[in-house]
Amino acid sequence: MSDYQHLGVYSDLVRVARARHGGPVPAALPGPATRALVFDTLGFGGGEEAPGDVRVEQRWRSGDLLGEELSWSVGFGPRTHAYLLKPADAEGPLPGVLALHSHDGLTYYGKEKVADGPAEAPPVATALRARQYGGRAFADDLVSRPDVAPRGIGCVGLSGGGARAALLQATCEKITAAVVVGMMSTYDGLLDRHVAGHGWLFFPATWPRHGDWPDLAACRAPSPLLVQYNRNDQLFSPAGMRAAHDRLTAHYRHAAAPGGYTGQFFDGSHKFDMTMQQAAFAWLRQYLAGVIRPA
């Protein structure tokens, strides 16, 4: 029996779980059957998902950007708030990108981590941007360059935001292209020192009975997917990230769309810095501006 650092005296649970479910995490190939398993695992009901009672709380202009603070109800709990940003000189519809903030162990602030609002960003959000995002509100930069021939909606997120980007990619057909940053590994690759740093968002209940995390992210293949990895990411093992990359590559080949998946590896720890942002935005523009048509 292997002793896993984070599981300690519960290390034998891995053996028990594998014996109960017939071995390691199975492979779930892209397609409707795997998507149905994802929906069932997440407990999605029937019908179209839609926000309720959408409001525009305030509007502002900052330089070349126009902003709106939106709020809506998901049917329970406090209202959700978000910023909608667009170039001030834009004419006609533009591609949309949903920028999903990271978790960071700091959950009081969300949208303020990745975008500027009408007021100055809180110091704690500014400090986090310096650590994780190269010192800038990446959502502001993302929308500052208008594109032509809009073809849909993209999403991008780091860490916990990357997990939500993967879940959106898997469940929402309105997503044209998705970028997952610093949130990709096989489950086996998290053993033995990368378990405690993750929560239920990365481990949807019962999903490992059906497939691995890369299987979930790829279930809509050939829908375009970019995953950015940091070679020294403290939240993942190099072997787990490389195995996830290989698994995603195989899934897109199986879907007859080997070019639909792109994996990019960068030096450094857990982050989405300017170099990574530039690469991600260039990739998104190819699909959202119609330069490359999704398969």
Automatic annotation (TrEMBL):
Read off the SUPFAM superfamilies from this record.
Answer: alpha/beta-Hydrolases
* Protein name as annotated: Dienelactone hydrolase-like enzyme
Lineage of producing organism: Bacteria, Bacillati, Actinomycetota, Actinomycetes, Frankiales
